[in-house]
Amino acid sequence: MRPKKSKWLDANIQAIDKLTPQTWKFTIEFEDDFEFISGQFITIKLRGIQRSYSIASFSKNKKTLELIIVKVEGGQLTTILFSDVEPGEKIEVKGPVGHFVMPEDLDRDFLFICTGTGLAPFKSFLDEMQITEKFPKRTYLIFGTRTQEDLLFFNEMKALVDEIPNFSYTPVLSRENWDGAKGYVHEHYEKIVKNDNLKNPLFYICGWRNMILDARKNIKALGYDSQDIKLEIFD
C-alpha cells in the first residue's frame, strides 16, 4: 500500500483495545470530520515513523476511525505503539487512499477472503452495510487465522449473520483443532463457488501475500477473470 501525496492532518489516539496479545485496535480521533470510503487506508506518522493501515470501521461519527494493528517483531512503529503509547498520544495522518472499495451496484454476490488483520477493510464494509442498509445479494466472509485466540471480532461477526441479510461467516483455523472449519481458506471459498450457484460474484482478497497470490490463481482456475478479483496485499 503506497500513499499518494496529500497533507498531514493532526489527530490523536483516542483509545486502545487489546483484541489479542499481539493484535490491538487503535481508535483515531480527528479535530474535524474525516471522510473516507470503506476499504481505503491511511498512513499514520508517530515520532517520525510512518506506516499504512487499512481502516477497520465505518461510523456516523466522522471524527473517529479504527485501525487493527498487529505487533511486528522488530517493527519500529509497532514497538512504540505496543509499549510506549497511551490514549491522548498525538499523531499525524495522511490519506485516505486506495481503490479496494465496493462498487455502487451491489446486485451480485460478494466473497470476502482474508487472513489476519486483512479482516480490517471487510469490517469497514460490513459496518457500512449496517448503517446504510444497502446489501449485496449474498455476502460471504471467509477469515483464516491460526488459533481461536486469533479470531478477531469473532462474536461480532457471528452476530452479523442474523443482522445482515444473506451474510455467511466462515472462520477457518490452520493450527488448532476445533468444532469449526479447519485448514486454509482456499478449500472453503472453492466449496462456495462450486456449490452455491453464485450470481456474478466479485472476489475481494486481503491479508498475507502468499494467501492472496494463491487465491487469485485458484479463482482464475475456477473460470473467473482478473476484473472479478480485487486484491489488497499487506507487505
Characteristics:
single chain, 5 helices, 6-stranded parallel beta sheet, 6-stranded antiparallel beta sheet, alpha/beta, 34% strand, Elongation Factor Tu (Ef-tu), domain 3, 235 residues, Rossmann fold, 12 strands
Question: What is the compact description of this entry?
Answer:
Helix 5 (209-221) links the parallel strand 11 (202-207) and strand 12 (229-233).
Topology:
Elements lengths: L8 E10 L4 E8 L10 E6 L2 E6 L9 E7 L5 H6 L8 E8 L11 E7 L4 H13 L5 E8 L8 H10 L3 E7 L7 E2 L2 H11 L6 E6 L1 H13 L7 E5 L2
Parallel strand pairs: 7-8, 7-11, 8-9, 9-10, 11-12
Antiparallel strand pairs: 1-2, 1-6, 2-5, 3-4, 3-6
Describe the fold and architecture:
The chain is an alpha/beta fold. The chain has two domains: 9-97, Translation factors (Elongation Factor Tu (Ef-tu), domain 3, Beta Barrel); 109-233, Rossmann fold. The chain is built from five helices and twelve strands. It has helices spanning 76-81, 120-132, 154-163, 185-195, 209-221; strands at 9-18, 23-30, 41-46, 49-54, 64-70, 90-97, 109-115, 138-145, 167-173, 181-182, 202-207, 229-233. The strands form two sheets. The chain has a six-stranded antiparallel beta sheet with strand order 4-3-6-1-2-5. Strands 10-9-8-7-11-12 form a six-stranded parallel beta sheet, with helices on both faces. Helix 2 (120-132) links the parallel strand 7 (109-115) and strand 8. It starts with 8 loop residues before the first strand and ends with a strand.
